[in-house]
Amino acid sequence: MSSRKALPMGKQLELNDLVDQLVPLGFKDANTLTEQLAQHREMYAVLERIRRLESELKLRTTNGRPRADNVDRFVQWATANGCFCGKVRIMDHPIYGGLGLESTGPIGAGESVIEVPRALFFYVNNEQPYRQVLELMPGAMMKEQGNIILALALIMERFRKDSFWKPYLDVLPERYTTPLYYTPEDMIELRETAALESALKLCKNIARQYGFIKKFVQDKVDALKLTFTYDIFR
Question: What pairs with residue 89 in β-bridges?
Fold first, then answer.
């Protein structure tokens, strides 16, 4: 981590100020749909300024190759570590949104096609390199929202040069088709649907989590202070 460059002091202070603006917005009540949309636009504007600053860290979550080019290495790694995969293969299906499973022959009822050993379950334990996060992050947050510690662990592994999980991480998408990537204009398209309120709440919750964690890890978690950004977290 020491080889990564931090932002210049002036830009870091600007980023800190923006995070300080974001956090209270995430805890502000918005009762009507009009208020929720206005709040989303306000938070989105702050996050866009945050993203521009954090982009200067030049962090990449991929190895620069198309996901499909990483499949063979991933399959070799998974198989070598005890994963069984029969009668299915990973294929690129752009029409359906990218990589997916495709059968290579008839599959009988109840037939097992994939078996994954416990050694290939990604989970967080109380060993290095996760101990510092587990010990320092507020216990209540970790108990109530286990997805947060899992996300932080994935970020740590993504930027650890000798990570055991690199072949797996290299086949993950760089972005996802979720409301977290919607602009305020995209959100308006959901106005006549039941999905709008849930989408707004999701964006608000993730922004609030980002702001809280950013303030926390910046000074206390060495493995995350230069790699935890909003784009990578979402």
Answer: 102
